[in-house]
Design a protein that fits this description.
4 domains, 7-stranded mixed sheet, 7-stranded antiparallel sheet, flat
């Protein structure tokens, strides 16, 4: 167990687990049908080329190998110990492994934290031994691991058995590593993916993660040149503060992280003083971090594999224009509809391309896009001709081919040409089969390096993931943190900063608020109102009133001496024992688009910045988006445009476009403020935030800042 969050394990420690030169199997059985026997049979059958030492005092020989009574009796270096013994014996055996110089251990035994509170201490002890003795531990409750390059099959999972699965042609840097807390799910993904011809490099079951976690293995395997993408299955991510660091390394290498994050409950949502804080929660934080870091979230096994299949067979597209070649006009149109729903364009092809297509497509076919080649043209080799024309066209960024793969005749004849086109790796090319593919047809496509989809949604989602990741990498390269922003330091003591107290901090960030005066009497309020042009708002100011409008502490649109006096009396005679710092007399702002911006600190990921459509209904509509701090204006604009109602900001026949640039500058500045005060800020709320038309900026009409310790006062 590591001593601090975000501390990744040194690379050499994981090498002994993932690429061991020798293995000891503690608790080994001669019965290859039992779990303790399978973990002997599996590495033997997989061709592991190092020594395997079964350890069991009850046997002299196990499955043709000499057996040893203890790990210490082996008398030779052991890199990896596979431990499959009763839970109560594990810690003692782990100590023996450390005494014998074993560098890594995979604990298959169950009966630890998953069994209840009584067994948690036993699991904690495993982590303590790992740290104290310098031995890297995977598990407990792991089902083992697999490393195809090292011919290491160290698992008892039946999912590792994939005899007869088609093998994709080797492409350096195009294999998938599966890292899963659930061993059953991890090897199920491997089994299903191998059946459809996806190339895998590793499968790791991290189990209960007493020592090593998902991120440790991802971080290590980022350095493996064969790994091009990751599938991650996790309920919780331990040391989640390292996720952004690991994801940034992955993005720098162009290696996507595709994750199924299980458990979307909002049970972790904490009570909050501000509107911003009330809309946080574990899943908000994960979604924000995933989006910001380019991590691709999938909802089921098929989606995980659909996306991974695209990344391991295709390059990234340069845009979102897709060309469709189909033997069935109806299915081609259907795929076009689905692709457009996923953000793609299906452009009409230019005259020169259409003229070329007419050379081998009959008049009753279609040449505009989708290209309907018809069964007649297919029999005459028109399929490859159409594919290559669309692949070569500057009008397309990706090509999807629609066909029936129920029989293998056509693809068998075409696979050489398909392989030649796919090997160019200039743009994505995928197949969609509207019938169940035969094993022979699928095998031919896999030989050509082409992935076949059996779901319209899956095909379109895979292409979308490629395009989204391409856009993410471009945005990551272009985004720059603001340089000329003055960031104030919040007070160290616990505090709730009211609108008046927060204003100086916001002013340093360039965030404007309506002109205002803080007063202590009705006469001062009348004088202040006379000094401000037009109607005013009166607002009670107290740290005890984070939602002052709900408590009756706000009166808007006040004009005239009598009205000001009456409003002052209203906001100063509130129920309860409330101490006021004064009353804010503030100019009423012109109308614009009401939005909200803010900061909330997540326990795992630190401060998150939020933007959304605001006003009194913000917690009902919840059209908000989050991102971890800090970030620049380009990412801020992307955050704004991700809102469901973002089109409202673009203007219409009756309204000018809103000042999105000003809003993006504000969000980027807030992100610097959040990062600078990450240890003290708990929440910041700007609601409403009125955005005016392009070039006219914005105004924060209310503000609240909450610092560390306040909620415990």
């Amino acid at each position: 167990m590591r001593s601090g969050p975000g501390l990744l394990v040194p690379v050499d420690k994981l090498q002994h687990i993932l690429a061991p030169r020798s293995i000891a199997i503690i608790g080994a059985s001669p019965d290859a049908e039992k779990i303790r026997g399978r973990i002997v049979a599996a590495p033997l059958a997989g061709g592991f080329n190092g020594p395997i030492y079964p350890v069991n005092p009850g046997h002299e020989e196990i499955q043709g190998l000499k057996a040893y009574p203890s790990i210490g009796a082996i008398g030779a270096p052991v890199d990896l110990a596979m431990i499959a013994i009763p839970a109560e014996r594990v810690t003692g055996v782990l100590e023996e492994c450390a005494d014998a110089g074993v560098k890594g251990a995979v604990i298959l035994s169950s009966g630890f934290a998953e069994s209840g509170a009584a067994a948690v201490a036993l699991q904690d002890r495993i982590g303590e031994i790992a740290t104290a003795r310098g031995i890297a531990v995977c598990g407990p409750n792991s089902v083992g691991l697999l490393n195809r390059d090292a011919k290491l099959n160290a698992t008892f999972s039946p999912g590792a058995k994939v005899a007869g699965a088609p093998r994709a042609p080797h492409r350096p840097g195009k294999s998938v590593a599966v890292i899963s807390q659930s061993g059953g799910l991890g090897f199920a993904i491997y089994n299903r993916g191998m059946r459809r011809g996806i190339a895998f490099s590793h499968v790791v079951s991290t189990g209960n993660e007493a020592d090593l976690g998902v991120l440790d293995f991802v971080d290590y395997l980022l350095g493996d040149s064969e790994v091009g993408a990751f599938i991650i299955l996790a309920e919780q991510i331990r040391h989640a503060s390292s996720l952004l660091e690991v994801a940034d390394k992955a993005a720098a290498l162009g290696k996507p992280l595709i994750i199924a994050k299980l458990g979307r409950s909002e049970a972790a949502k904490r009570g909050a003083l501000s509107h911003t804080g009330s809309m946080t929660g574990a899943e908000f934080a994960y979604d924000a971090v995933f989006r910001h870091a380019g991590i691709i979230r999938a909802d089921d096994q098929d989606e995980l594999l659909d996306i991974a299949a695209a990344f391991t067979s295709c390059p990234l597209p340069k845009g979102r224009d897709i060309g469709i070649v189909t033997i069935s006009g109806g299915v081609g149109v259907w795929l076009a509809d689905v692709c457009e729903k996923h953000g793609f364009n299906v452009p009409e092809l230019g005259k020169s391309v259409q003229d070329e297509l007419r050379r081998f497509i009959p008049d009753y076919g279609g040449v505009s896009n989708p290209v309907d080649i018809t069964a007649q043209a297919m029999e005459q080799g028109g399929n490859i001709g159409a594919i290559e024309l669309l692949y070569n066209s500057p009008q397309t960024d990706a090509v999807a081919v629609v066909a029936s793969m129920a029989e293998a005749t056509m693809v068998a004849a075409e696979k050489g040409e398909l392989a030649r086109i796919q090997a160019r790796q200039e743009k994505p090319m995928l197949y969609y089969s509207y019938t169940i593919p035969s094993e022979a047809a699928l095998s031919h496509l896999v030989d050509a390096g082409v992935q076949c989809y059996t779901s319209l949604q899956g095909c379109a989602q895979a292409l979308k993931s490629l395009a989204d990741y391409s856009g993410f990498l471009e945005l990551r390269a272009a985004d720059q943190l603001p340089q000329n922003v003055e960031v104030a330091t919040l007070p160290a003591a616990p505090a709730v900063l009211t609108e008046w107290s927060a204003a100086p901090h916001l002013a340093k960030l360039g965030i404007a608020m309506p002109e205002a005066r803080l007063v202590q009497s009705a006469e001062e309020a009348i004088a202040a109102a006379e000094g401000l042009a037009g109607p005013v708002a009166l607002k009670a100011q107290s740290p005890q009133l984070p939602h002052k409008a709900v408590a009756g502490g706000v009166v808007l649109g006040v004009e005239g001496e009598w009205a000001v006096r009456r409003a002052y009396e209203q906001v100063t005679t509130l129920p309860g024992d409330i101490t006021l710092d004064g009353v804010l007399v503030q100019s009423m702002a012109a109308k614009g688009i009401e939005m909200i911006a803010g900061i909330a600190r997540d326990d795992a990921f630190g401060p998150l910045v939020m933007v959304g459509f605001g006003g009194s209904e913000v917690e009902v509509e919840r059209d908000v988006a989050w991102a971890p701090a800090p970030f620049g204006e380009r990412r801020a604009e992307g955050l704004i445009r991700s809102l469901r109602g973002a089109a409202r900001l673009n203007g219409s026949a009756r309204a000018q476009p809103a000042d999105i640039d000003a809003l993006a500058r504000l969000l980027a500045a807030l992100s610097l403020f959040a990062q600078h005060n990450r240890d003290s800020i708990v929440e910041l709320d700007l609601n409403p935030l009125v955005v005016y038309q392009e070039g006219q900026g914005l105004l924060a009409l209310d503000a609240l800042i909450v610092t560390e310790g306040t909620k415990n006062l």
